[in-house]
Structures are given as structure tokens and as C-alpha cells.
Amino acid sequence: MPPERPSRSSGGADGQLLATGAPEELFWLRAKAVFVEALERPDAERGNYVAQACAGDAELRDEVESLLASDSAAASFCETPAAALLGRDVPAGQPPLRPRLAPGDRLGQYEIIGFIAAGGMGEVYRARHTVLGREVAVKTIGPGAADVSARRRLLREAQNASMLAHPNVCTIYEVGEANGAPFIVMEYVNGRTLNAIVREAAPSLGDALDYAIQVVNALVHAHEHGVIHRDLKSSNIVVRSDGRAIVLDFGLAKHLPETGSRSSDSSLTGQGNLVGTLSHMAPEILLGHPADVRSDVWALGVLLYELATGE
Fold first, then answer.
1. Contact 59/16 with Cβ under 8 angstroms?
2. What's the whole-number average pLDDT of the chain?
3. Which of the following is catalytic: 89, 231, 249, 296?
4. pLDDT, mean of residues 8-16
5. Quick one: which of 242, 288, 303 has its CA closest to 30?
6. Is-contact 110 116, C-beta < 8 A?
7. Contact 239, 211 (CB under 8 A)
8. Which H or E run includes 268?
9. Given a cut of 50, is residue 10 above it in pLDDT?
10. CA end-to-end distance (rounded Å), the chain
11. How much of the chain exceeds pLDDT 70, in percent?
């Protein structure tokens, strides 16, 4: 948390938002949100994005640029980048935080075939069960994230997803452990992300409605089981060759406590922590309020806009 700042109540929509809560905390939430979103953009586009996102707020822009500079310097000196300090992996294109598993490596009864992607708290690999011959996806966490919180988050992801059994939700098979590090074994979904499909060309109205209905069905099923996704977006949806859309990555998912429950373990992110993707976050999330079913509905609205416009 940066040093305490004087109260802020600047004009405009952003200023009004900041003025409604604790100014210093909300300022930092906004700075963190813009920083995380900037990291997901190519280097050449970051400057313009930061200038637009900060909308003339010089102090906010200075804070974001300082975070980006710190992140770059940390990567250069092999230190922990600012992205990792905010609970995010280093973006694509920067050196990985740890060596990747190689084809032929083993995790329990699973043999690694190849690397799929990095994100959230770890990396995802394509693997094969050495006895059953079934191809799966294996999500791991690395030594840099192998603390108690990361382990609990990985297990909570498995627990949340295992509550769900739906054709449009990625199936969790089991949770294992190798060399002291837990991993999740899940359905290997062979297809293209909805993000890649939309970027190539805006889908037809029929296809857009088909994808939307499938995602809505998945969300309805999750919400009926008390699970909210909290990071619903087109890059977390894979479309198979047969047209079935599969919702992935419940890494930020939260289980809504049952009525009367006193459990405080329904979410593994601290109060006021910003989780998810900035462009899909409901306004109350940016203000530090907890997510609920309506937060997923907001993200769904963003997804529908993307399907309808191709943007």
C-alpha cells in the first residue's frame, strides 16, 4: 500500500467514484486495476492505454507508470515483478517465473505432453494418464507461489468446480500432489478460445446467440450451486470443434456461504483485493465491495457486447 494520500474528490465520473469511499484505498484500487490491465497489453500500446485510462489524472498516471517501471526493473534483475506482488503472473512475453515442466516429466501417474498456458497462480500442461491413456489438462503452482494461500486457492478451485457437473463447464477429475506441490487434473478441452474466434471475425447472429446461451446455461448451473466465477471473459471460454462452449478457470471463483453460515472461507482473496479483469469488472468491484451473482451478470453483459460487436 503506498503512502497515505490527501483526500481526493476531483471532478468527473472517476472523481465522484473516488469521493464515495476511503480516498486513499480507492485511489490504490484504481491504480492497481489500470496497472494490471496495462500489463495485458503489448508494450507499444501501454502508454496510450495508461493515458486514456487515467483520464487526465496526473497523480494516478504517475502511480501506474511507477508500478510499470518497477515491474520492468524487477524482471530485469530476476526479482519478483510487481505483477506477482498483486497476485498476477508475469504477462506473456516476459521471462517465466520458473522453469516449465518438460515433455516426459511425471506428476504422479500423469506424463507431461506439452505446455498449454500460464495464468492465475500457476501453469497448465497437457498430460496423459499413464494407466488409462486419457489425455487431460494439469494445472500446477510453482515454488514462487507455493505458500499456504496459493495451495488453498488451488484446492478451492477444484472444490468449486467439482460441485458443478454441466456440459458447458470444464470437468475436474482429481487433485494430486507431487514433490510437495498440489496440482489439479481436469478435462482437456481441445478448441479455440472465444476471444480468438471473435478477434478473427465477429460471429454471425446465430453463432453469437448459440455461444451466449451455452455460457448462460453454465452460469445458471454454477449460481444454483452457490458458485460465482468472478473472471468470466471470452479468453476463459473454449469452443470445441463441435461448437460446444466450455467455461474454464474457476481460479477466482467464490462459493457463496449458505444462509446462516459463519464461515469466512468462501473466498480466498482478502477484503478489498481487486480480482478479475478490469474491462469486465462491475463498478461495485472497483469500489472494493464483495462480488456476488450480479458481478457475473455484469461480466456476461460485457461478453454479450463483445459477441455482438466483435470488439
1. no
2. 74
3. 231
4. 37
5. 288
6. no
7. yes
8. none
9. no
10. 34
11. 66
> Largest alpha-carbon pair distance within the chain?
64
Give the pLDDT of residue 69.
78
pLDDT at 173: 87
String of DSSP letters for 235-253: GGEEEETTS-EEE---TT-
How many CB atoms neighbour CB 102 within 10 A?
A: 10
* 245-301 per-position pLDDT tens digit: 999 876 555 666 653 333 333 433 444 455 667 778 888 877 778 888 899 999 999
Task: Please name the residues in contact with 45: beta carbons below 8 A apart, sequence gap of 6 or more.
Answer: none
The crossing angle, in degrees rounded to 10, of helices 23-39 and 58-76 is: 50
Place of cell 477466482: 252
Of the two residues 148 and 183, the one the predictor is more confident about is 183
Alpha carbon separation from 253 to 160, 185, 211 (Å, rounded): 7, 17, 21
Backbone angles phi, psi at 261, to 5 degrees: -75, 140
Tell me if 173 sits within 8 A of 165, measured CB to CB.
Answer: no
Look up 210 and say whether it is catalytic. no
Task: Choose among 32, 7, 38, 288: nearest CA to 15.
Answer: 7
> What is the spatial distance between Cα 290 and Cα 199, in angstroms, rounded to a whole number?
31
**241 CB burial (10 A radius; 0-12, 13-18, 19+):** exposed
Q: What is the DSSP annotation of 276-302?
A: S-GGG--HHHHTTPPP-HHHHHHHHHH
Residue 293 C-alpha cell reads as 451473482
pTM flag (> 0.70): no
Give the separation between CA 177 and CA 171, rounded to whole angstroms.
Answer: 19
